[in-house]
Amino acid sequence: MTKLKIHTIESAPEASKPLLENSLKSNGMIPGLHGVLAESPELFEAYQTLHKLFTNSSFNAEELTVVWQTINVEHECHYCVPAHTAIANMMQVDPALTEALRNGTKMTSEKLQVLHETTLTIVRNRGYISEEEVQAFFAVGYEQKQLLEIILGLSQKVISNYVNHIAETPVDKPFEKFAWKKNVSV
Q: By residue range, what is the domain housing residue 150?
């Protein structure tokens, strides 16, 4: 498969240069995903906007991580699982939760388990969810707002996961120690 170009600030379309400069300033590097996204300034801006909106949603760091990593693992994103493992570490998320997400094992609390299961249902069923599943989500303390915010996180992850699949984006050096492959044992 032809790999897609990973832009630098110098090679990027003019409209993407400020986005890459902000990425460099924020991350101390330009993540490979951002370099690929730079080819389409519109997609890059959409991704960054969705990221900012989801990060500022009502979910805390653990809940953000559950939604992101549940989707990353389900989509088998070789790039985003390690990247979000590093992000979870920076956000001081319990490593036991991160490992449970990466390995498909039980979450560290019932509430996070229900968030995980609800996110999986939405992803696997393309937005269809039963009344019983919605009620189980509400029963652990979530509300309609959080149900909708899962879709916001999914919107962001569809962009990054799908782009990484198509581009075969190499995992960035700082994330290599968190490399991941889907656990095929059941």
A: 57-178
